[in-house]
């Protein structure tokens, strides 16, 4: 079992015929993802060859769903077209939309995340690395060769830290790793993933990676305290970040005492989450807890 993405997921790629879309579609297919089609209205009816597979291009998400039974889409379109791409996918009834595109205007993100949610589409991102269920499927840009299947769930704001924790725990393995993105507005939160991992019988422990800015981690801490029975290990990036300066992600900005790494660490620890001081130390906490459970 996995969270949101399984071996049975049938994936469309919006923007597949562009440079990034082509590169990462090839990587997704190599990882075992069932990529059933691309979407580009100007190239509908063509096929694109990826090593040993020819993938058809459809004129719309709706056409792709009708022809293939697709239930997920990965969005690689430029920022100006992201809103219409997500809206189209939601209107077509797609179950999962993974928006890799960065630099999307916040007002567009507000609009399409709200729209997707109202139509029952699970949206991951924007500005995220996607998600992977190792050995089953990979939707996005996460390297598939840095982790094996296992029983740890991972939810992270940071793509780079997603990769690092996957590598640190490569011998343990993961059920699903979800990069939710670091923008101020995202479609899936830490809390959404915590709830999904809590309900997943094949996830024994959850790693939560946050960063400075906003209050998502504090809200996640409250949710862990009230609803999560599985052990949770956390890491917060940004202890040395200067106040008032945006650091990398658009959402990673501290104002006064709000959104600081220390405040987030204290909230998580008060909820029973063990918080590491470094990514490697965080991985060691996971190993210690798994050792205690065997």
From TrEMBL:
What function does the entry list? Succinyl-CoA synthetase functions in the citric acid cycle (TCA), coupling the hydrolysis of succinyl-CoA to the synthesis of either ATP or GTP and thus represents the only step of substrate-level phosphorylation in the TCA. The alpha subunit of the enzyme binds the substrates coenzyme A and phosphate, while succinate binding and nucleotide specificity is provided by the beta subunit.
For this protein, what is the EC number? 6.2.1.5
Q: What top-tier enzyme class does this entry carry?
A: ligase
Q: Which PROSITE patterns match?
A: SUCCINYL_COA_LIG_1, SUCCINYL_COA_LIG_2
Annotated keywords: Ligase, Nucleotide-binding, Tricarboxylic acid cycle
The family this protein is said to belong to? Belongs to the succinate/malate CoA ligase alpha subunit family.
GO MF annotation, one: nucleotide binding
Record-annotated residues binding substrate? 163
Question: What residue stretches are annotated with the CoA-binding domain?
Answer: 4-104
Task: Give the protein name, as stated in the record.
Answer: Succinate--CoA ligase [ADP-forming] subunit alpha
Cellular component (GO) terms are: cytosol; succinate-CoA ligase complex (ADP-forming)
Quick check: keyword Disulfide bond in the entry? no
The record, for PANTHER family, names: SUCCINATE--COA LIGASE [ADP_GDP-FORMING] SUBUNIT ALPHA, MITOCHONDRIAL (PTHR11117:SF2), SUCCINYL-COA LIGASE SUBUNIT ALPHA (PTHR11117)
Query: Does Signal appear among the keywords?
Result: no
Description of how the protein assembles with itself and partners? Heterotetramer of two alpha and two beta subunits.
Q: Which residues bind CoA?
A: 17-20, 43, 100-102
Top-rank taxon of the source lineage equals Bacteria
Enumerate the SUPFAM superfamilies for this protein: NAD(P)-binding Rossmann-fold domains, Succinyl-CoA synthetase domains
């Amino acid at each position: 079992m996995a969270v949101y993405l399984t071996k049975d997921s049938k994936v469309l790629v919006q923007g597949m015929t562009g440079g990034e879309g082509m590169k990462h579609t090839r990587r997704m297919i190599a990882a075992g993802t069932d990529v059933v089609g691309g979407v580009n209205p100007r190239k509908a009816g063509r096929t694109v060859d990826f090593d040993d597979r020819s993938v058809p291009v459809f004129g719309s998400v709706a056409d792709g769903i009708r022809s293939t039974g697709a239930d997920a889409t990965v969005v690689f379109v430029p920022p100006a077209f992201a809103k219409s791409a997500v809206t189209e996918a939601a209107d077509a009834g797609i179950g999962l939309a993974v928006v890799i595109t960065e630099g999307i205007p916040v007002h567009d993100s507000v609009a399409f995340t709200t729209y997707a949610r109202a139509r029952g589409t699970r949206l991951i991102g924007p500005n995220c690395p996607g998600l992977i269920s190792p050995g089953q499927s990979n939707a996005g840009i996460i390297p598939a060769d840095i982790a094996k299947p296992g029983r740890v769930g991972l939810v992270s704001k940071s793509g780079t830290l997603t990769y690092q924790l996957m590598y640190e725990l490569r011998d343990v393995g993961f059920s699903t790793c979800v990069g939710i993105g670091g923008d101020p507005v995202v479609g899936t939160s830490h809390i959404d993933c915590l709830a999904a991992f809590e309900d997943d019988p094949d996830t024994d422990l959850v790693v939560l990676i946050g960063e400075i800015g906003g209050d998502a981690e504090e809200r996640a801490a409250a949710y862990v305290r009230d609803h999560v029975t599985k052990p949770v290990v956390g890491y917060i990036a940004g202890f040395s970040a200067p106040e008032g300066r945006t650091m990398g992600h658009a959402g990673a900005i501290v104002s006064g005492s709000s959104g600081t790494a220390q405040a987030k660490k204290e909230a998580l620890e008060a909820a029973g989450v063990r918080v590491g001081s470094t990514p490697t130390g965080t991985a060691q906490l996971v190993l210690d807890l798994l050792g205690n459970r065997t």
